Amino acid sequence: MRKINRIIPLILFISLLPTVLFSSCDKDTNCYIDVLVCDEISRNPVSGVSIEIKQEGGVVHADGVTGANGIFSTHFNAPAIVIVKADLPVENGGHRRNETSIRLKEGETVTANITLPIKVEY
Q1: ∠22-24-28 over CA atoms, to 5°?
Q2: 42 Cβ partners below 8 Å, 6+ apart?
Q3: What is the 3-state secondary structure (H, E, C) of the chain?
Q4: Residue-wise pLDDT tens digits, 65-94
Q5: From its phi and psi, is residue 14 left (phi > 0), alpha (psi between -120 and 50) or beta?
Q6: Terminal CA-to-CA distance of the chain, rounded, Å?
Q7: Which residue, 25, 10, 86, is CA-closest to 51?
Q8: Looking at the predicted structure, is the pLDDT value of residue 104 above 80?
Q9: What Cα–Cα distance (Å) separates residue 99 from each residue in 6, 18, 40, 118?
Q10: With the CA atoms of 115, 116, 118 and 122 taken in that order, what torsion angle do they form, in degrees rounded to the nearest 10?
């Protein structure tokens, strides 16, 4: 009877060990970013804005265009500090541009808010 009492906890421990060891492997390690571009005067979202996300001297890089809701979303595999640039061409050949810097965090969504200035650059 004493041997059975010692074997049952050992069997229970061995059966639960893989669950404990491998449950941490499911953690989301991607870094998500939403870039929201708004107009300086109206504060409304702006669609069709070219977005460039890059890390100086690094491998993090993404390009895209904001949708109808003024948002461009993407993800990266590792945390980093990135520069987010927004560029909107205007009718007379100029551009409305702005940029910001953000830190990407593992398993989180970070929002980069960029306001396009009234000033047009040529």
Answers
A1: 125
A2: none
A3: CHHHHHHHHHHHHHHHHHHHHHHHHHCCCCEEEEEEEEECCCCCECCCCEEEEECCCCCCEEEEECCCCCEEEEEECCCEEEEEEEEEECCCCCEEEEEEEEEECCCCEEEEEEEECCCCEC
A4: 999 999 999 999 888 899 999 999 998 889
A5: alpha
A6: 89
A7: 86
A8: yes
A9: 65, 47, 13, 14
A10: 150
Q: pLDDT tens digit string along 11-70?
A: 766 776 666 656 555 677 899 999 999 999 999 999 999 999 998 777 778 999 999 999
Confidence (pTM): 0.75
Residue 91: φ, ψ to 5°: -55, -40
